[in-house]
Design goal:
Subcellular location: Cytoplasm
Number of domains: 1
CATH superfamily: Aldolase class I
Strand order of the largest sheet: 1-2-3-4-5-6-9-12
Structural class: alpha/beta
CATH class: Alpha Beta
Number of strands: 13
CATH architecture: Alpha-Beta Barrel
CATH topology: TIM Barrel
Pathway: Bacterial outer membrane biogenesis; lipopolysaccharide biosynthesis; Carbohydrate biosynthesis; 3-deoxy-D-manno-octulosonate biosynthesis; 3-deoxy-D-manno-octulosonate from D-ribulose 5-phosphate: step 2/3
Domain DAHP synthetase I/KDSA: 18-259
Helix content: 25-40%
Enzyme class: transferase
Radius of gyration: 17 Å
GO molecular function: 3-deoxy-8-phosphooctulonate synthase activity
Length: 275
């Protein structure tokens, strides 16, 4: 089966009409894991009738420690992602950290993701926009939701009009995050779909000294609140065995528990809203 990258316009329009899912392991640990998780996500999405995008990173360039696992790198990582798309038909989203990565990544990925720490990097945003792909920008932990208008403006000036904005918590003292759900309607007012990253929002940045910690037990609570607040998409880092994950294990959601959580959230989404 040959699977071409999704037409950016089609994927973006779908994201405006029904709740969608971004899911996968934080980093590409192995080819086999990528294929296993992508297949599971595709099966769940098929049963639930939702659009899913497989997410994993070929390089985690912002780890706590120099010894932290980063991933297989650009060339190998893109080959694994391309194979996951070929095998499952799922669109692909992955992070870019440098402007020169945008073009080669766009040959494989359907969505380019801008990490939270880099959401104000003008050259990176411009390069991502120039690919014509959907660009998912994760709001920095240090940034007010209303200040994302400047990010949207930079992308628009570079021709990027297919944009997702992702809430992933805000810095709350040291080694902690808190979610201000006012950010959902505030960022939606900028005219683009808003995603809630339920797993990074329970992260404890640098909380283990040489690595980040997390409180995955609060993922369902925050995800329910986000759906009630009106998010368009959900971002969940999932892993078959989070306690053995090489990256972001403490805040990753167990793959076997993905479908029950999504069923609950979709039921909540169907409840009529007063606004």
């Amino acid at each position: 089966m040959t699977v071409s990258p999704a037409a950016p316009g089609d994927l973006y329009e779908k994201s405006r009409k029904a709740m969608f899912l971004i899911a996968g392991p934080c980093a590409l640990e192995s080819r086999s894991l990528a294929l296993e998780v992508a297949a599971a996500v595709a099966e769940v999405a098929g049963r639930l009738g939702i659009t899913a995008i497989f997410k994993s990173s070929f390089d985690k360039a912002n780890r706590t420690s120099i010894t932290s696992f980063r991933g297989p790198g650009l060339t190998t990582g893109l080959s694994w992602l391309a194979e996951a798309r070929e095998a499952t038909g799922l669109p692909i989203v992955t992070d870019i950290h440098l402007p020169e990565q945008a073009a080669p990544v766009a040959e494989v990925a359907d969505v380019l993701q801008i990490p939270a720490f880099l959401c104000r990097q003008t050259d990176l945003l411009v390069a991502a926009a120039a690919t014509g792909k959907v660009v998912n920008v994760k709001k920095g932990q240090f940034l007010a939701p209303w200040d994302m208008k400047n990010v949207v403006s930079k992308l628009a000036e570079a021709g990027g009009r297919r944009v997702w904005l992702t809430e992933r918590g805000a810095s709350f003292g040291y080694n902690n995050l808190v979610v201000d759900f006012r950010s959902v309607p505030i960022m939606k007012s900028l005219g683009h779909p808003v995603v809630f990253d339920a797993t990074h929002s329970v992260q404890l940045p640098g909380g283990q000294g040489g690595a980040s910690g997390g409180q995955r037990e609060f993922v369902p609570t925050l995800a329910r609140a986000a759906v009630a607040a009106g998010v368009d998409g959900l971002f969940l880092e999932v892993h078959p065995d989070p306690d053995k994950a090489l990256c972001d294990g403490p805040n990753s959601w167990p793959l076997a528990r993905l479908e029950p959580l999504l069923r609950e959230l979709l039921a909540l989404r169907s409840v009529p809203r007063a606004d």
